Amino acid sequence: FFLFFFFCSISSAKSTLGTAAVFLDCFATSSWFRLFALLFGSASREEGTDEMPVQEKMSVILQKLSKHRPAVELFSQFNLRNILSETLQNFGATRSFLALNIRSALLNIDADA
Fold it and tell me: Among residues 43, 77, 92, 93, which one has the fewest Cβ atoms lying within 10 Å of its Cβ?
């Protein structure tokens, strides 16, 4: 995850835009989206789970992927829009960082629909 944050922080530079896109392509797979769906689906039921810090980090990846063209159809394939909406409803008031990333991802997903 730390490598991902590094790439995201430098992705605004023109010379690294291609590198960030290639990095996001690695996450735009069925295997990763299955993991995202499982993690967000299970953690959205209980606030006190150990998955919450990981869920917050993965929400950053999902937010970036929601703007990444190759990943757009995977959100609907794995029902992530509904899973993210449920997570936002359950924890939006208590986990502001998670809520911010989920809201942004949902806006991007809805804009693409």
Answer: 93
CB–CB of 56/101 below 8 Å?
yes
Count other C-beta atoms under 10 Å from residue 4's C-beta.
18
CA distance 72 to 91: 24
Contact 60, 100 (CB under 8 A): no
- Predicted TM-score (pTM) of the model is 0.74
Q: At what angle do helices 52-65 and 80-91 cross, to 10 degrees?
A: 130
Cα Rg, the chain, nearest whole Å: 14
What is the model's pLDDT at position 52?
Answer: 67
| Cβ neighbour number for residue 50 with a 10 Å cutoff | 9
**CA distance from start to end of the chain:** 28
